[in-house]
Design a protein that fits this description.
Elements (H helix, E strand, L loop, with lengths): L1 E4 L11 H7 L8 H4 L3 H10 L8 E4 L11 E6 L7 E7 L2 E17 L5 E12 L2 E2 L2 H10 L5 H7 L5 E7 L6
Length: 173
Amino acid sequence: MTIGYSNEYANGVPTFFKYKILKGIDPMLIDYTLAFKTNEDLAAYEEMSPTLTVKIHTIRADNSDRWHGGMKIHHCYHNRTPNRCCFLENECERTQRIQIIFKGMPIIAVNSRGKDVKVGIRTLVIVDGLVMNEEQVETIAKNDGFDSTAKLFEWFENKDFTGKILHWTKLRY
């Protein structure tokens, strides 16, 4: 099945998802004629690669429960357009269910009188029924190609989300 990726964030800044995905793939498994249509594209990847984080999974809605391990993935830009560009084909190793619940959990502090006081609300990220701690959420964000947890949450427009993490590596949370 096809996964389409955005070239840019909502603010127009490039995502570099293609390069981040390719950086996380064993170079021996990359079909360079598929991944890089021009020498300029390959040169840009080689120049940027040392500074990029990796993207080793993607988070997707899956309302019809179509995604599962063993499926072939076609990673593309401009999907369903005449400019469709498939840059990688590999296999979905496994999926994990994920929920992002904004305003999901109160943050409690103890005041000077020893009383619990609500000081904020933390966004909950739940993977396969387990609540992730802040460090785990940061790891999920980085592995999904974002620079921070805040950028991941911004991508989902701070709206509750239920879907799947589609893994093409052996990593699990």
